[in-house]
């Protein structure tokens, strides 16, 4: 059962409560968010649906949570429902459901490839449609940030094309920003959704907005290569200073998170090559005991959407670091050891390793960073 499946399950519980006359809300929300439990939570997944409905229903959130809990306990695949905090619903799946969820997750990642996590949520929201202006002379970080935001927004269905320069009377021109080469599959400019930028200017009937970021405090282009430069500019939040160069020049996992992410991707591809030499390929046939890695992969679509909505590529970068750490802690279990023969367990772990590498490569691509197969 995927987060999307659980979201539909919660919505069905809401509709049942409304139909039973227990929740008096005029409209059922089109979607509810299902995510990993936060601090103080429990179970496999959590939702704030009760808090979302409390206002329209004119009821305390915990009372709404109790109403929904009664209707979720008999849902297929759900073993337990707990209420925590002000009214969060924490869902624990049945063991067999968790195994099936892992199988469906890995299959989806392998089928969708680097586009796993892409969607159309922002393309359906016309109020998000604005353009970003990249002024002539914009610093390296502003250009990199705008391109990354554009790529994230495009991944969530928003049309994208950024304008550069200024015409007379403060009008943005239609020239595309071309200061740096965009990564494959990414366009340098964007008609962008979800803008929380400043500096609005009229542009062809739409608002042209400008992102803001703390300028680099050193010559990043001179100090770092293309990948390290992108990471230095995008890994910190826009209101923080860019990363210092020295750690990004050290090719060690302890000091350089970018190296960790790229190394994890390279290791995933090395495992595929090694398995081929041993005569087997990946196939998720049985449950794999890798909860942190499975959780990171399942969270990837929500991370992409949140990063796009908030114009925050740093969120994606942090998620890739967490995914890489989870994978590197898991990778040693993938291949047979000694005289051990490849089994269903090995094939399942290999499929999960392949999926992890795919997510890392897709995320790096959105940030304009390469994902080498060899390091």
Q: Can you walk through the features of this model?
A:
There is one protein chain. This protein is α+β, with helices and mostly antiparallel strands. About 45% of the residues lie in helices and about 10% in strands. The protein has twelve helices and nine strands. A hairpin with a 3-residue loop joins β3 and β4 (about 90-95). α1 crosses α3 (about 60-70) and α9 (about 255-280) runs antiparallel to α12. It is flat and about 65 Å long.
The residue ranges in which pLDDT falls below 50 over 5 or more consecutive positions are 166-205
| Computed structural class | alpha+beta
CATH architecture of the largest domain: Orthogonal Bundle
* CATH level-4 homologous superfamily of the largest domain: Isoleucyl-tRNA Synthetase, Domain 1
Give Rg in angstroms.
23 Å
CATH topology grouping of the largest domain: Isoleucyl-tRNA Synthetase, Domain 1
Q: What is the count of β-strands?
A: 9
| Name of the level-1 CATH class of the largest domain | Mainly Alpha
Give the distance, in angstroms, between the N- and C-terminal Cα atoms: 36 Å
Assign an overall shape: flat
Return the domain count.
Answer: 3
The largest β sheet comes out as:
5 strands, mixed
């Amino acid at each position: 059962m995927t987060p999307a499946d659980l979201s539909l399950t919660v919505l069905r519980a809401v509709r049942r409560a409304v139909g039973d006359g227990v929740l008096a809300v005029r409209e059922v929300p089109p979607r509810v968010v299902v995510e990993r439990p936060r601090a103080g939570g429990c179970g496999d997944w959590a939702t704030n649906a009760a808090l979302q409905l409390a206002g329209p229903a004119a009821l305390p959130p915990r009372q709404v949570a109790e109403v929904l809990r009664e209707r979720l306990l008999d849902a297929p695949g759900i073993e337990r429902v707990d209420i925590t905090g002000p009214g969060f619903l924490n869902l624990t799946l049945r063991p067999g459901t968790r195994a099936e969820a892992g199988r469906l997750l890995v299959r989806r990642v392998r089928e969708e490839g680097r586009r796993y996590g892409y969607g159309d949520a922002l393309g359906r929201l016309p109020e998000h449609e604005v353009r970003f202006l990249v002024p002539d002379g914009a610093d390296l970080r502003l250009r990199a940030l705008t391109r990354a935001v554009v790529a994230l927004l495009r991944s969530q269905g928003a049309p994208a094309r950024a304008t550069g320069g200024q015409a007379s009377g403060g009008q943005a021109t239609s020239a595309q920003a071309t200061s740096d080469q965009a990564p494959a599959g990414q366009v340098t400019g964007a008609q962008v959704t979800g803008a929380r930028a400043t500096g609005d200017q009229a542009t062809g009937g739409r608002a042209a907005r400008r992102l803001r970021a703390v300028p680099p405090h050193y010559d990043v282009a001179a100090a770092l290569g293309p990948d390290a430069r992108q990471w230095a500019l995008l890994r910190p939040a826009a209101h923080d200073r860019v990363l210092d160069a020295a750690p990004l020049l050290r090719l060690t996992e302890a000091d350089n998170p970018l190296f960790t992410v790229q190394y994890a991707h390279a290791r995933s591809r090395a495992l595929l090559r090694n398995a081929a030499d041993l005569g087997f390929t990946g196939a998720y046939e049985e449950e794999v005991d890798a909860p942190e890695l499975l959780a990171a992969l399942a969270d990837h679509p929500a991370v992409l959407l949140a990063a796009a909505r908030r114009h925050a590529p740093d969120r994606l970068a942090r998620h890739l670091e967490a995914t890489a750490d989870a994978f590197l802690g898991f990778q040693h279990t993938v291949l047979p050891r000694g005289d051990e023969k490849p089994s269903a367990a090995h094939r399942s772990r290999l499929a999960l390793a392949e999926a992890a590498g795919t997510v890392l490569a897709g995320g790096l691509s959105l940030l304009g960073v390469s994902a080498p197969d060899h390091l």
